[in-house]
Amino acid sequence: MYFDCDTRIGRSAGTKNLGGHDISPETLLANMDRIGVGKALVFHTMAWEYHPNEGNAMLIKALAPHRDRLEPCWVMLPHHTGEVPHPQDTVAEMQRLGVKAARIFPNFPANSHRFELAEWCIGEMLDALEAARIPLLLDFVLFRREQPPFRDIFSICENHPNLPVILIGVQARNNRSLYPLLRRFPNLHVQTAGYFVHRGLEHFTEFFGSRQLVFGSNTPTLGMGAAHFHVDRALVAETDRTAIAGSNLTALLAAAAERAQQEGRI
Amino acid sequence: MRNKTYPSDFDLIIDMHCHMGHFRNFQIPFNDVHGMVTGMDALGIDIACVTHHAGIFSDFRFGNDKVAEAMRLYPERIVGYCTINPNFPGEVRAEMERCIDGMGFKALKVHPELHDDYPLDGPNYRPVWEFAQERKLPLLSHTYSGGDSLEVFGRLADEYPDVTILLGHLAFDKGLERSFAMVNEHPNVIIDLTGPVQFLGVVERAVRGVGADRVVYGSDIPFRDAATQLGNVLYADLTREEKTKVLGLNAKRIFGIGEMLA
């Protein structure tokens, strides 16, 4: 089963001449049915384009009738300004609501949330997520020739070995820095659609196996059909394709659910 | 064996914007012609129209020779662009004759961004436009945010009406609607989807904006993977007839490559 780690609902303003989108849970599900995607991890555009406090609440409400197929993913911010609760409280609330993944936008252009990916800024958030085994989707909203801040990613993965990190939108040009990180940190994962290296899924799998690849489409910025086609036609073994398509993400979320259960939050 | 099972079960898929070889800025897996053709087979792509990375960077003659070698290895799968560098003007005419007349290349490629931002309407590019006009050749030009304006493309299209100008990357950085307007005003300009087609809805907007006869599919392989772009055409909200044109029929007409498919 294909399980998409990277979708969003809600109404977006539009960017880079691409136009806006307005995606309801029902639209998303219809698209998933058309393409052959069974489940999706979803965040709300309002949590990215406006504020997580509003967007995360909207998400829980919107997904309520569809939780069998649509899993919520909350967007998080640093707590130091008082605009969001302390991360321990946020994570406890996530566990109570069955939210098993978090996403942050720690970059500086206007389409990001403008904070440092560093211990002194979000260390407590990372500690709380790590303790709960909640996967963290790192979205730098990269474009074309840009690269993720690999030194910061190194530090996070080193300081939080039990925090699953999923890099969103790695782009096509970054293997020379990405590969040593993947070799060193088993908790580092890569979302597929934004990793559009030529025959990259195949090369990645030859070097590292498939455990660190997670199917994600970045719908509706990119296309879910294209992301599915990318994985479906990759020249990898069927066992690897199954892992990439869904079982890797399923296992990550199951670990978060298990931890929440152990802590009596669900 | 080319994979033509659903959803890529189109009789003809031509990728009209491809490269080949290493690139200094980053590692490219499987970047030789064998690696490219293996990837094309997996996705159902029949033909790649290729300029070599060495051609858009350090040595266009070396790059063109590499393309010629790939054409010899895969005569039914590889179409050559003759790439020229305007910073070596004394070699340009002879190189175009060598590639087009001597080695069977089908089109010209210019990349002003990697050739010192040389202006497309500058004197050193004039022999290229004149040669393309003389031979009625297609010419693919890269576009980029700091590069020549759409007005320059429009003027060149008027000056050289027998040249089919392939507007690289849809001139995405100039704005989709502005690109469509320029293309609609110049019948010899065609939209190359390479790059922006990765974004949801771009192919539909292009076809609605300029018509299905004026849009061609490209991917930039092996600069990047083809699947995340091709998939957006295959799953697009277009008719099968429109997709057939965008994926192959338009490029077949523009490049005159019917004989390769016989």
UniProtKB/TrEMBL annotation, chain A:
Keywords: Hydrolase. The keyword Hydrolase applies. SUPFAM superfamilies: Metallo-dependent hydrolases. InterPro entries: Metal_Hydrolase. It comes from the Bacteria. One of its GO terms (molecular function) is hydrolase activity. The keyword Hydrolase applies. This is Putative TIM-barrel fold metal-dependent hydrolase.
UniProtKB/TrEMBL annotation, chain B:
Residues 61-257 form the Amidohydrolase-related domain. The keyword Metal-binding does not apply. GO terms for molecular function: carboxy-lyase activity; hydrolase activity. It comes from the Bacteria. It holds the Pfam family Amidohydro_2. Keywords: Hydrolase, Lyase. PANTHER family: 2-AMINO-3-CARBOXYLMUCONATE-6-SEMIALDEHYDE DECARBOXYLASE. This is Putative TIM-barrel fold metal-dependent hydrolase. It comes from Chelatococcus asaccharovorans.
